[in-house]
Amino acid sequence: MRVLVVGGGGREHALIWKIRQSPYIEEIFCAPGNGGIESIATCVDIEVDDIKGLIQFAEDNVIDLTVIGPELPLTLGIVDHFQKADLAVFGPTKKAAELEGSKVYAKEFMAKHNIPSGGYKSFKSAKEAIRYVHTIDPPFVIKADGLAAGKGVIICQNRGEGFDAIEKIMKKKAFGKSGSRIVIEEFLEGEEVSVLAITDGERYVLLPPAQDHKAAYEGDTGPNTGGMGAYAPAPVLSEKDLKFVELNVIKPVIKGMKSEGRLYKGVLYAGIILTKDGPKVLEFNCRFGDPEIQAILPLLKTDILDLMMESAEGRLKNQPPLIEDKAAVCVVMASGGYPESYEKGKEIKGLKSVPKDVFVFHAGTKKRGNQVVTSGGRVLGVTAMSDNIQKAINKVYSAVSQITYDRAFYRGDIAHRAIKRL
Ligand code: GLY
């Protein structure tokens, strides 16, 4: 098979690494890719939102399956365009991807289908939102309706922070049109866990639950990032709670989306919080979590290409995927200054010293002559798998210590919550 993967981050590098293990693979392309992906796939210089360009490429190169990595093209309707052009594609349609693309839609959908989530109200007018904030007790959460590069969720510890958030999102339009509506939501307390399913719109398979580390600094402190590391499976989610999430979130979402004429194919990512009243949904994403998928894929023994093709063609088997009885930990190496401003173009050294059984997925890198240099905030996702979580942690940090670049920055406590449970 000839496969095109759309995207250029750690998620796409990990996906391509896994897809290459399929016996069916003939050639893999990636648009636009990055400095690490180009050593395992042919990178083509087409941006992820250039839907026409991507369709043209898929047609010209007789692509059998296109896999969409990031949310932006999905919410723009890339899947609908590929389907119209009669090209096989993995991911949800525009209407289905609204589960991630519109927080207001997601909350309304959950309320309608009895999916456990925090109480909320949505607003189109800043004036009404401000009036409402005067009536509620902090803490509460304000979310921009649309995509906001992971920055559209603001936890407000007092009403003043709420007014500031409304000003930023609705009046100053910090996230453009994404802030023309907001959700004001109950603040939920508990540990977070990511539950990812691959679905064909009716059937689904669950991947091992993973835990992300969104805060920039150790001890889960500092500003939120795209994710500083992840591990899987996450023991924070008990068997019982996983079953609860499957029966009360994953199943009813797939059924509910179908009943609303929004057949949901691709990845359904439920961001779950484990509250004292049980698991509740914080958010949905319509694509693989990053960096979670970098820790999940090494554990997956089932052919990922089979699963994605079956999802695209609506013929997924209701069979649990085969999973290694091991643990995997991914540590994100970032640029000093991330998630605020950071410099690029730093030469990365030591990549060849990393043992062969540790996977270095590139996120923000590019090639400069013979060098690999930094080109983004999150630079690398270093992932190790071992018999248990402690061994995986030791292995991953030993590899991370081999890799150097100016102002390299990473958290030293990835998977600390799993360790607490040992
Ligand atoms: N790791 C969080 C996300 O992918 O949205």
Description:
This protein has 422 residues and is an alpha+beta fold. It has 4 domains: 92 residues, Rossmann fold; 68 residues, Dna Ligase, domain 1; 123 residues, ATP-grasp fold, B domain (D-amino Acid Aminotransferase, Chain A, domain 1, 2-Layer Sandwich); 93 residues, Glycinamide Ribonucleotide Synthetase, Chain A, domain 4, CATH 3.90.600.10. Helix content is 29%, strand content 27%. The protein contains 13 helices and 23 strands. The strands form 6 sheets. Strands 12, 15, 18, 19, 22 and 23 form a 6-stranded antiparallel beta sheet that branches. Helix 7 runs antiparallel to helix 8. The longest helix has 21 residues. The chain is globular. The model has no long low-confidence stretch (mean pLDDT 97). The chain binds glycine. The site of glycine has 6 residues, from loops.
Mean pLDDT metric: 97
At CATH level 3, the topology of the largest domain is D-amino Acid Aminotransferase, Chain A, domain 1
Largest sheet: 6 strands, antiparallel
Number of structurally distinct domains: 4
Computed CA radius of gyration, to the nearest angstrom: 21 Å
**How much helical structure, as a percent, in the residues?**
25-40%
CATH architecture of the largest domain: 2-Layer Sandwich
The CATH class assignment of the largest domain is Alpha Beta
Report the uncertain regions: none
- Distance between the amino and carboxyl termini: 43 Å
**Which ligands does the model contain, each kind named once?**
glycine
Strand content: 25-35%
